[in-house]
Design goal:
The chain is α/β, with parallel strands linked by helices. It is about 35% helix and about 20% strand. The chain has eight helices and eight strands. The two termini are about 35 Å apart.
């Protein structure tokens, strides 16, 4: 069943079929939802992308589409992901297996929508997936929102990128050729520690753009130290708020990379 105002279709790759929700027209953007699933906040983000002149592809990977966020719901879906063979939540030098299916979806979106390529944004558990998808040349606008894999259970995990060395070399090359990476995080988010963005700066240089929002004690916008989801649950959609500025930057990257010059 599709979300209200969205189309839905089954997409199959390598024998695995998942439902993909779509909305809008224009260049394709694949939006990978966070834990616990396609919440109303994730759906709101997808609608925003579609309203900006893109066709958004929102694959259903876990959870119940449209179900509101709650702590029990999030913990339950996190536990499911941790034992799933499709998500390698502690892997430092390899990507989760589900990224192969997501790459195929990106190629499908590009074939359907045309243009120079597609955008891809991952959030939390799926945050670093956009790096893995960059190995495919269809992905031209990768965004990592609070990338949380591998879970930062040790010093080396905190700086790891959930990507093989071979794939990282491809990402480095592509980031120098116009497919630079945008990353978003709150400064005190324990799931997305500063070492991870430091590693991205070190590996990608000018090919990485970081948006780090102050969530420390006494920050001028009163952002909670527990803030995590930059463009969804913790978004304050008010002009001048740093989360709105971050959202605007995401949309501008999609416009700059995917739309013809006379359409933006």
């Amino acid at each position: 069943m599709a979300l209200e105002g969205f189309e839905a279709f089954p997409f199959t790759h390598a024998g695995v079929t998942r439902t993909v929700h779509c909305k809008g027209s224009g260049p394709g953007v694949v939006a990978m939802h966070e834990i616990p699933g396609i919440t109303p906040e994730v759906e709101r983000f997808a609608r925003r992308v579609a309203d900006e002149g893109f066709r958004v592809f929102l694959p259903h990977m876990f959870g119940t589409p449209g179900k509101p966020l709650s702590i029990p719901y999030a913990l339950g879906q996190m536990a499911r992901a941790c034992i799933s063979r499709e998500f390698s939540v502690l892997a430092k030098g390899e990507s989760s297996p589900i990224t192969d299916w997501l790459r195929a979806l990106c190629r499908h979106a590009h074939a359907e929508c045309g243009g120079p390529g597609v955008g891809a944004i991952g959030m939390c558990l799926t945050g670093n997936f956009a790096l893995s998808l960059m190995v495919d040349e269809a992905v031209m606008a990768p965004v990592l929102s609070q990338p949380s894999l591998p879970f930062p259970v040790s010093r080396s995990h905190r700086a790891a990128l959930h990507l093989s060395r071979a794939d990282l070399e491809v990402v480095k090359k592509r980031s120098r050729q116009g497919a630079g990476v945008l990353g978003l995080r709150f400064t005190h988010d324990p799931l997305c520690p500063p070492e991870r963005f430091d590693a991205l700066r070190r590996e990608l240089g000018d090919g990485f753009e970081a948006v780090e929002i102050d969530s420390g004690p006494g920050n001028p916008h009163g952002i909670a130290r527990t803030a995590h989801s930059v463009v969804t649950a913790d978004l304050i959609d008010e002009q001048g708020h740093p989360t709105r500025t971050a959202l605007d930057r995401v949309l501008s990257v999609f416009r700059e990379r995917l739309l013809a010059p006379d359409t933006h």
